[in-house]
Write a structure and sequence with these properties.
This protein has 890 residues and is α+β, with helices and mostly antiparallel strands.
Length: 890
């Protein structure tokens, strides 16, 4: 058809041409009367999809929705500014991962839902509900318009979303643990379904396969070389997807299924990328391969059709066809004719008759969607009058879908919100996001009192997303009257959190009103009682960035009431807030608690973290007392870095020999965070008090970042001038390739290699479900490939994903932090560092710089003995976890 389009990742036919995802553009190519030749050049309909950083996360998959819009997906790797060519950036729509849609005649683009990772596959079931297949995190999501879904990483584009919707599947297609471990799809991962990368969502609605497959989701599993099958069950406002038997095994390691689609005969086409690589090998691709297969049942006869040749009456009748291929194309053709002014009144009348007289809900829905497609009047109002939940829910959606809506929209949605069906209430919550905030309260008030919806996470969160603009205006009195008695916990918690982010004093005042009001009874009193811990959690979350706040008026009284609360959780949350407010009495209680070895370890660690944030005068002495504590000693060592206590170097060096291996790493990191402490540590290395081998390459990287001449001089005395790996990479590669040749590797001691790994790598990398989260997970990497290991160890900064770039933050008190930015707001920045995550308030930062290099330091191998290198590489290539060496003397 055409051969000069690049980056094709989605195709759909309609409205006289072909629509194409071709990053960075959405194209429309008109075709001639025969439909098999372009009638003109490709037109850029939309542009702005980011191709530079998207890599394998490009926008993809085109499909006509029941609403008459063209739907598609987009991945997480980059944020795009989408709009018509020539549109200024401030007029464009921002999106990264999620689902979008475009109206072919109104020429409107909008985001349907945000989140997931790399959705690559989208389809609709018999009820018009959308589903996407996804990679890395869970594989299947029920797409609710306006939804905000779980992400692989990063924050939602709405900073006040707070909670994110989850997968609808009750399973994953690998055996658990980190997702990278499933690459290859073998062993336990193969038994579970094959792996973590999914694409090609198809909800089967054809008429060739047996009925047991209808409304099942089929999805290609890249690493499992197969097609998975999920069985949908309606539950609450949405669905739960159960794992059916895997449908198709390719028995070919080159199989890379990308798409599934049923055709007019009901048979299913499977397209196969057919390559040895995966989504990450986007630089070297074999373009000579590619397959299309077809899966049929029984003796299937070929079907040849030309729906464009049918008249309107025939297209209307096809709305009842068992094979949804006919239904969808016939509806789209009717929509095209209506847009061209070629639909007669008899066509609308026939569809209205079908809607009125057909009792089966899915068939009534088909008539409804076709009526909407051709622009029939009062479609939404007719659907809202239905007693069938999906029909009524679609009425709410269509009511707000167009550029105009009835004057009584708020009343209509409020009436629907009173439905006993959670399906309808979910649709109303979705629709409310499309009406002005001032028109939402009436419907919301119909729904937030339903205790049965508290356990329905999707519905609860959709109610919050709709209420958020109203919650931004809530005062303490409003909260007491409107939110405190609500039955949905996330509404209470998130409204309090939003209030506290704006004004902590107002949120505390609202909490006080909940505690003292006595003139309520029944369910309202129960909900108000339950709201207290939710409000506390909300206020606590608002202060998670560690910002200093003045103790609000009335907290002394409120804090005392909560300190005597019957709930231990409430007492703990109140103590944490008191610490954030700088309450001296609370600091004394906290110090007593963290020293109490009989208290729960989780509670002690949480309170100690809050105590460190509040930085009382006695913090240094408290931390010193806790160093030997088995439950909180590691946390105390890390906290010393922020305390600034002058006795820290002496205490850590003196106790070093008694620390565990992880605590020794923490001690080295703490001592490396300030110039004077670093000099004390290096002096101890010189004298033999600390093993030089324990000050690994990561610590040397940190010492370099102190930018202190005295420290640099001591480092050079011990390790020589730190080499830049790229200077002599070729020679080093050859040297270590020879040193670590296959014959030599036979002598590797895996157990000793693990000990080297624990000392040098585990603080940042996870392997076999254990280790840090600063760098990439190594479990599923090519770690058995010596060249891969050498490339990454000798020149770690050659290629660095942006999420692993090193940032150096210097505090005003002299502490230097080196880590990966995982959260960045105007109030604070949070760094992932070896062994811990640290939040630094904006007012504490003296300087901050992000380097275009990896956190992983150069010179890692050079700091090891030949035996340590051999053992480490052997361990890295092991197929399963091995035991650590037995302690000396055993």
């Amino acid at each position: 058809f055409i051969d000069n389009i690049a980056n094709i990742s989605g195709l759909e036919i309609g409205f006289g041409g072909v629509w194409v995802c071709a990053s960075p553009n959405l194209l429309f190519i008109p075709f001639d009367a025969g439909g098999d030749r372009p009638a003109g050049p490709a037109k850029v309909v939309l542009d702005g999809w980011n191709i530079k950083t998207a890599q394998h996360n490009v926008f993809n998959r085109l499909i006509w929705g029941p609403d008459g819009w063209l739907w598609g997906c987009n991945g997480i790797q980059s944020t795009s500014l989408v709009g018509k060519p020539g549109t200024a950036d401030d007029k464009r729509t921002t999106m990264n991962c999620g689902v979008w849609r475009y109206h072919p005649t109104r020429q409107v683009f909008e985001v349907v839902a945000d989140g997931t990772t790399n959705p690559w596959g989208l389809d609709f079931d018999d009820y018009g509900q959308a589903f996407i297949t996804n990679c890395v995190i869970e594989h299947l999501f029920h797409v609710v318009p306006g939804g905000r879904f779980k992400r692989m990483r990063g924050d939602d584009l709405d900073p006040h979303a707070y909670g994110l919707m989850q997968t609808c599947a009750d399973h994953i297609h690998w055996a658990g643990g980190v997702w990278t471990s499933s690459r290859g799809g073998d062993g336990a991962h193969g038994t579970a379904g094959g792996g973590h990368a999914h694409m090609g969502c198809m909800v089967y609605l054809g008429d060739n396969w047996p009925d047991e497959y209808r409304n099942n989701v089929f999805l290609c599993n890249m690493h499992g070389n197969r097609v998975n099958r999920d069985i949908l069950e309606q539950k609450g406002s949405g669905y739960v997807a159960h794992h059916g038997l895997d449908f198709l095994m390719a028995n070919d390691p080159w199989f890379r299924g990308l798409g599934l689609a049923y055709g007019p005969d009901g048979g299913v086409y499977v397209n196969d990328w057919c390559d040895t690589g995966e989504c990450h090998n986007h630089k070297v691709v074999d373009r000579t391969n590619g397959r299309i297969y077809k899966v049929t049942y029984g003796n299937l006869k070929p079907v040849k059709v030309d729906l464009q040749a049918l008249n309107d009456d025939e297209l209307v009748k096809l709305q009842l066809h068992k094979n949804d291929w006919f239904v969808r194309h016939a509806r789209r053709i009717l929509q095209e004719r209506a847009a061209a002014g070629k639909i007669g009144g008899s066509t609308i009348a026939a569809l209205q008759k079908m809607f009125a007289e057909n009792p089966e809900e899915t068939r009534k829905l088909r008539a409804l969607w076709a009526l909407y497609a051709v622009g029939a009047p009062d479609v939404a109002q007719s659907a809202l009058a239905s007693k069938q939940p999906y029909v009524k829910g679609w009425g709410a959606r269509l009511l707000v879908d167009g550029p105009t809506r009835p004057e009584n929209t708020a009343d209509l949605l409020s009436d629907a919100a009173g439905s006993d069906s959670p399906v309808v209430r979910l649709a109303v919550a979705s629709a409310l996001q499309r009406v002005p905030a001032d028109d939402r309260g009436q419907a919301l008030n119909q729904m937030v009192w339903r205790a049965e919806d508290a356990a329905d996470l999707n519905l609860s969160l959709m109610l919050w997303y709709a209420a958020e603009p109203l919650a931004e205006r809530v005062t303490a009195a409003d909260f007491d009257a409107q939110v405190g008695s609500a039955a949905i916990p996330v509404m209470r918690e998130y409204a309090a959190r939003l209030m506290a982010e704006k004004d902590v004093g107002e949120a505390v005042k609202a909490l006080g009103l909940l505690l003292v009001k006595k003139d309520v009874a029944g369910a309202e009193a129960e909900h108000r009682r339950d709201a207290v811990p939710d409000v506390l959690k909300g206020i606590q979350a608002a202060l998670k960035d560690g910002r200093k706040v003045t103790m609000p008026a009335g907290w002394d009284r409120i804090g005392q009431i909560l300190a005597n609360h019957p709930s231990a959780d409430v007492r703990r949350e109140a103590l944490l807030l008191s610490l954030a407010f700088g309450d001296n009495a609370a600091q004394a209680r906290a110090r007593a608690l963290v020293k109490d070895a009989g208290a729960p370890a989780t509670e002690r660690r949480e309170v100690l973290g809050a105590l460190v944030q509040s930085k009382p005068a006695e913090l240094g002495s408290t931390l010193r007392e806790l160093l030997a504590d088995k439950d909180v000693g590691d946390l105390a060592i890390r906290a010393m870095a922020a305390s600034g206590d002058a006795q820290t170097p002496a205490v850590l060096i003196e106790g070093y020999g008694k620390f565990s291996v992880p605590s020794r790493r923490d001690a080295i990191a703490t001592l490396s965070s300030r110039p004077t402490w670093a000099l004390a540590m290096l002096t101890a290395v010189h004298s033999g008090k600390l093993p030089q081998a324990d000050v690994g390459a990561m610590a040397v990287r940190q010492l370099e970042n102190l930018k202190n001449k005295a420290v640099d001089a001591e480092v050079e005395k011990l390790w020589g001038r730190v080499r830049k790996a790229s200077d002599d990479k070729v020679q080093l590669m050859a040297r270590y390739r020879s040193e670590l040749a296959p014959d030599a590797m036979k002598k590797a001691d895996m157990s000793s290699g693990r000990a080297v790994y624990e000392r040098t790598c585990a603080a940042c990398h996870t392997l076999f479900d254990a280790g840090g989260k600063v760098g990439p997970d190594l479990t599923g990497s090519q770690r058995a490939n010596l060249d891969y290991v050498l490339e990454n160890v000798l020149d770690p900064s050659a290629i660095v994903a942006k999420e692993y770039l090193m940032t150096v933050v210097e505090r005003k008190d002299g502490q230097v932090l080196t880590g990966i930015v995982v959260a960045d707001t105007p109030e604070a920045v949070t760094l992932n560092m070896p062994g811990q995550s640290v939040t630094v308030r904006a007012g504490e930062i003296k300087s901050r710089k992000t380097e275009s290099i990896s956190m992983m330091p150069e010179g890692l191998f050079e700091a090891m003995t030949a035996k340590e290198r051999l053992d480490l590489v052997g361990y890295l290539g092991s197929a399963e976890q091995v035991a650590l060496p037995a302690p000396a003397g055993r």
